Amino acid sequence: MKLGLEVLFQSQLHLLKGERAGLIVNPASLNSRFEHAVDLFRSNQAIELTTLFGPQHGIRGETQDNMIEWRSFKDSRTTLPVYSLYGETRRPGPEMLRDVDVLVFDVPDVGTRVYTFVYTMALAMEAAREAGKRFVVLDRPNPIGGIEMEGALLEPAFRSFVGMFPVPMRHGMTIGELALMFNREFGIGCALDVVMLEGWSRADYYDRTGLPWIMPSPNMPSLDTAIVYPGSVMFEGTNVSEGRGTTRPFEIIGAPWIEPYQLANELKSTPSAGVFFRPIFFEPTFHKFKGELCGGLQLHVTDRDAFRPVATAVTIIAAIRRLWPSSFEWKQPPYEYVYDKLPFDVINGGSMLREQIEHDVAVSEIEVSWAAGVLAFDETRKKYLLYE
Would you say the C-alpha torsion 59, 61, 63, 66 has a positive or negative sign? Predict the structure, then answer.
């Protein structure tokens, strides 16, 4: 399998030849030989690399958590200017694009709507259109496959930096396919080229590609993390730890007031396919409940095809709320630059899911409520799918 980054230098270099290029990258912008996009661009005489841009967590991947801002600087290794797209500004301004003819995006996605990198891409596409610059996306595989979709569509009133368009929580698209959909379906309208993957099948999870897993962000250490993330990200909107500060973020959840074996027994009454809930104790080294003993669960996915990460997370949250109603809380704002809405609602793209949980609606009924939206989205996305 070949990444868009590899295909670019193999057969699509005409897209950048003789142009001044700006490159949006992070530490995971590597090819299959562990060569970074910045080094490949700098060593190729056909391209003049003039500017670097970094998304959330920094171009070096050094910043841990939400709402952490970092400033622009000159890279000591390349002497190129580096601009932050997660801080005082989240889109390239005209002065940042002064020495750029074409803006190139090569940052991995994880297949979940709640991940800022694709919205950095969308905002950069808008900036490119306004500045009359071309935009090129070097495609990368969806690590959790390109078939399954799950969750409610985002409502326009809940548009944010973790959800700009009516997309379900698990969308089943590559970043290149998303770029095409954002550009045409949602009206960005920039001059866009997508350098396609070679050899990727929609059914392939990342471990079938033969590519090395490089952490796209500090709390996405493995493919196992990405598989549970479409659901476990919801815990960011609660006072339950999502496992930050452990070696298994998003696979581990819990709180000091949770008794893990009681929670595991409660979940047996509403079984979730393809996953085993292992009762555990843990002590986060940072973030929620730093240094406190927590009880909770580790999610062990036993059958990827059967596992429904979003429904599973809803099942766990509903069970925690039933068992510890006086302790469980929805986290208060802000969340990802949103100051007037509950973080749980921002994450889920609307208040409906929270209200359903509060009214003890069965998880099976909640899943039914997503169905029409997912079906409509599937019809839309078919126009932009690049791979069989």
Answer: positive
Distance separating alpha carbons of residues 24 and 99, to the nearest angstrom: 14
C-alpha distance from residue 189 to each of 125, 185, 231 (Å)? 8, 9, 32
72 compared with 65, residue with greater pLDDT: 72
Region 66-71: mean pLDDT is: 58
Burial 171-207, CB ≥16 within 10 A → b, else e: bbbbbbbbbbbbbeeeebebebbbbbbeebebebbbe
129-142 pLDDT, tens digit per residue, is 999 999 999 999 99
What mean pLDDT is predicted for residues 53-75? Answer: 71
Q: What is the pLDDT of residues 231-255, one digit of tens each?
A: 999 999 999 999 999 999 999 999 9
One-letter amino acid of 320:
I
Distance of CA 56 to the CA centre of its chain: 11
Kindly indicate the confidence band of residue 292, based on its pLDDT and cuts at 50, 70 and 90.
very high
- HSE of 278, CA atoms in CB hemisphere, 13 A: 10
Task: Report how far residue 49's alpha carbon sits from residue 39's, in angstroms, rounded to the nearest whole number.
Answer: 10
Q: Please spell the DSSP secondary structure of 132-143, one letter per residue.
A: T-EEEEE----T
For the chain, the maximum distance between any two Cα atoms, rounded to a whole number of angstroms, is: 64
Q: How buried is 153 (Cβ within 10 angstroms: 0-12 exposed, 13-18 middle, 19+ buried)?
A: buried
Q: Is 261 exposed, middle or buried (0-12, 13-18, 19+ CB in 10 A)?
A: exposed
Phi-psi region for residue 334, left (φ > 0), alpha (ψ -120 to 50) or beta? beta
Residue listed under structure tokens 């078919």: 382
Residue 165 phi/psi, 5-degree rounding, is -135, 160
What pLDDT is recorded for position 63? 66
Cis ω for the linkage preceding 334 (within 30 of 0): yes
Q: Spell out the residues 6+ positions from residue 13 whose beta carbon is closer than 8 angstroms to its own.
A: 44, 46, 47
**Distance separating alpha carbons of residues 367 and 274, to the nearest angstrom:** 16
Report which secondary-structure segment, H or E, holds 23. strand 20-24
**Kind and range of the H or E run holding 295:** strand 294-301
**pLDDT tens, position by position, 344-355:** 999 999 999 999
Number of C-beta neighbours around residue 149 at 10 A? 21
